[in-house]
## 1
Amino acid sequence: MIAIASDHAGYALKQTIIEHLTAQGIQIADLGCGGEPVDYPVYAEKLCRAVAAGEYERGILVCGTGIGMSIAANKMPGIRAALCGDCFSAAMSRAHNDANVLCLGGRVVGSELAKMIVDTYLTTGFSNGESHIRRIGMLKELEK
Ligand code: RB5
């Protein structure tokens, strides 16, 4: 199961993604917001805590640029968040970085590109390459 959250600037794209994934039969939990003005770190924390606790396999965060959400998410232990504006980055974020959170900029990417980025992110697996496993281990060390 996937979780998604946004601030007000990412709300419209969040709704588009929910509709897109639901139409594919993918279960997605909406952790807010409801479109009202909010502070993005609150929603980044909420989603990342749930992903890190194993409540959701992966998460998607949307704010205006995706930058605030990605900065906040990457401060959370156990989270590897990738801000992606293209499908190649989305694929690599999974294959090389085993990213468990995808960040998107609702004011940056159009809805059709965002849907392709999300589909790519959700369907690409981790490469399991030895060097990538080692580097992810090094990221975990940096958290300490
Ligand atoms: C909100 O206006 C905007 O600053 C926020 O959505 C995000 O882009 C921050 O990084």
## 2
Amino acid sequence: MHSPVGIFDSGLGGLSVFRLLPDMLPAERFVYVADSGRAPYGPRPQAEIVAFSEQIVEYLVEVEQCKAIVIACNTATAAAAKVLRKRYPTIPIVGMEPAVKPAAQATVTGKVGVMATAGTFGSEKYAELMSQYGRDVEVVEDPCVGLVTLIEEGELKSPRLSAKLNTIVPPMIEAGVDTIVLGCTHFPLVGEAIAEIAGVNVKLIDPAPSVARQLVRVLQEHSLLAETSDTLLTNRMHTVLTSGDKDRLRRVLAATLDPTTNARLRIVKHDFMTR
Ligand code: DGL
């Protein structure tokens, strides 16, 4: 059997990237790790996020034999991408960062909102990003305290979710923001609810499609693309592991994956031991 592509996030957020992949790369097999049992990562110290990310990638590489890794998490990328690339120099690792660059290009008012986690805002990587692309625009940041937890609880459309978003989005709009960066992979999962509050004149930037395209490019460059054949297509089965609740994962998957996708999923409970 050909090697899969590994994807991970602190929890369910990376599904905003994963949901695009089976149709874009129909011959590939994917193993997704949702570390929901330890989410959110955002408020944790960077060293702990690095340790958790290393445990997950070790599992994906050594047990699942993954040929490439997608860090479908801004917080884990900011904390751990460098360490992971150093530890696995032969395995391509695709990371992600808040889309400040496209937002700075898109804004007309010159004011951009960034919704991300405290971990991302506190990282060196974000500081670099801001000094490169955030200089000519005004950036309104919100660490969205509690929002990831609500999404992990499966609240993708609910009064509790709306109440939380109403503390985050309107202040950005009042500050004159016309572009909002969804700088945490959990947030596109509630993109509709955010758009409803933000209104039609505000552009939301979800980096998931560009991360998915980057994975395709990287697999091509490293000659790692699986061969397309009908046998593979019909036998293809993806694995989704969670360190949290399987039923919650199932519910969010059902609400998130395109119902027309023919991806077959195996859902597995897996605990990562804290060292
Ligand atoms: N989904 C993650 C991100 O993209 C982090 C959420 C969290 O665990 O705090 O930043």
